[in-house]
Amino acid sequence: MKPIKLLALDLDGTLLTTDKRVTQANQKAIRQAQAADVQVVITTGRPLKAIEGLLTELALTGPEHYSITFNGGLVQRNSGEILAKSSLTFDQVRDIHQTLYHLNLPTDILSEGRVYSIAGQDGCQSQYHLANPALAFVTCDSLDDLDPNIIYNKVVSVTDADYLDQQLTHLPGAIYDHYEAFKSRDIIFEIMPKGIHKAFGLALLCEHLGLLPENVMAMGDEANDYTMLKWAGLGVAMANAVPSIKAVADQVTQHSNDASGVAEAIETYILAKEI
Question: Is residue 225 flagged as an active site residue?
Fold first, then answer.
């Protein structure tokens, strides 16, 4: 096996604990990985603005550091410079919104650090502001309130987990045919441009850095992590991962996100190779 040169880390359910902290053990292991010349890359559905505090905490704020945001839709330096980007057209946003609206699911439309929120048909309100309070939210009555000429990165629907699962059973198959659609958390359903996912962004970044899939260890726990765990030379699922992620992973941690499973994997598959 080739040496790991890049560590791709999901956030919720992976690096972050249930109460959104990075454990001391995880912080220490990440510092040690960096000292071993391993590029640590946050791969997340969130925009860069929503993870700025975390990047500062982990000392990943320089132009030599990178993040993959919007589930692969943006590949960028942590200084803000964009290396590659993909987006939805306004017609696609309208198509997705109409589908969610008729299922009485709220629609949150992300444009960089701004979120346009529209309630479901019967007034079902979004909970996205609770999941990402760092973003700027704008409540809209309809799509008529939006500018059709700006960049739209993705659409999400965020509501009670049981209700979301119930309504998604009625989602038309065309959504899966025309877009990348998946759950990133139990309360969050995300819709991205077709072909845009974490593995797509990771492949672009590795091409930029001159790395091969065999040089990458990717860690995740949810459906939106599937492609990058499958693509990476070493895909590691968290102990708390959903079954489909454990099935595609090369390895599964013994410890969960709340018990520093990331540190366990770094120590086992990266730092042990340095000894």
Answer: no
